[in-house]
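Throughout our pipeline, every protein is held as a single compact record rather than as scattered files. The remainder of this section carries one protein's record, kept here as part of the documentation.

===
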Amino acid sequence: MKTIIGRIGLTLLYFFSMIAAFGQNPLNIRDFGATGDGTTDDAPAINKALKAAATQKKDLYFPSGTYLCNTISDAQNHILLLRADGLKGIKLYGDGVNTRITTSLNEGTCLLYIIAYAACDGLTIKDIFFENTHSVIPSATQALFLYGTSGQTITNTTLSGCRFDGFCNAVEGQGVKGWTIDKNIFNSPKGHDNAKNDTDPAVYVWFFDNSNGYCKDIYITNNVADGYTGTAPIGSLVTKRAMDGFVYGTGYGFTIAGNTTRNFSEEHYLLGPRATFRKDTSQTLISGNHIDGTIPPGSMDENGSKQHLINYGIRCDISNAVITGNDIRNYTYGIMIRGINYPKYYIRSYQITGNKLYAATDTVNYSVQTGISIEGNIGNRIHDVQVTGNEIHIDQLKSGSVNAGILFFDVETGLIQNNTVQTANTSKNVQISALAYRRVGKVQEMANQVMGMKFRTILSPTDTVQIISDQSLKKN
């Protein structure tokens, strides 16, 4: 009897496991009419598949093919739409660059819009190539927008192994808690933003913080971002500029690590102060990134009247940040904190350590400024800035230029320790200071090494400056 009962139990267990396995079988967009032939408009079929995946709570597979999507699905100009309310652990996935979702509409659109008014947890978007081939238009385009609303309803999302070509803003989000953006590729084959002939930011990844939601616990790791991958000279583009930057916006708890970025005309990273919770103390970590500050040849300023000579590697105006172990080549500004733009914000607590910065050596196409620049404002100075163990190399500067390795401007308290600042430039017409100060409170200097330049400059002798030095400076 026990044996019979045991066999019945095993049979039932197998039966229910098969049902469960059947329930987990992914849906396939081809089963909903998508062709992937590159000429048929597959947007209606893919939207049917997305709706079915949401209703049945199943993964959705995008097999190899080129899926042209030129049908707008709603009044907000979304092409593909996933209503992700109540989904848990759902995956949208393809076969890497062999799965191409492309649009050629000459208007501002979002290729894939994901919205959740109720909890959506564990969503994964993986191994899909998103592409936009439109011409220059007056409106912005997005590849992917995650909108968790003000209820922060989208949690623990992963975007990995994807490629993005030709969007004004490739990935945007708000109302998202827990977002990993890992091992993706970003390209701009047509220059500035592939869309708009204006000065709006053209950035690959943009985070919002307003009444409609904010982003928290964001991991941006191991991505490759190329600001311009085209073959035409920048001067021949309508915008006269290469892509602006990689990461832009603000949030709560960033980890940005192991990324490789190049060919940007403006900022590689720009994180602004938080808007909703200004005194939030969550930490931002920017670590181990490889930044090539080379400006694409022929880049012009916004109005096209003169050559564009300045960009910057890392700008972080969020408090409580650690910027460590980054390698920045060909900089004009290497690392920047710029509280001067936010006179009413509480900006403080930075650790800038172990970074290697190499200034651009081209004196015609670059205007080198400062390796590490910390600027508060006269009404709200920055407190607790620690700049330690960095290497700054400044060579081949323009005749008549004034440059600094490390600049403190409107900083109340800080430590500058064990940094190396050196130059091979011997021109008498170039003024280089390892350290430069203006309107600082109390700054402690310890064991810094300076080679080939003036050690310290007080930019305005009439300002109150209190510098505490341990007299262990090494100067060669």
User: Anything to note?
Assistant: DSSP finds two helices and 40 strands in the chain. The chain has a mean pLDDT of 88. Residues 63 and 94 are 6 Å apart (CA to CA). Residues 32-308 form a domain with the Pectate Lyase C-like fold (CATH 2.160.20.10).
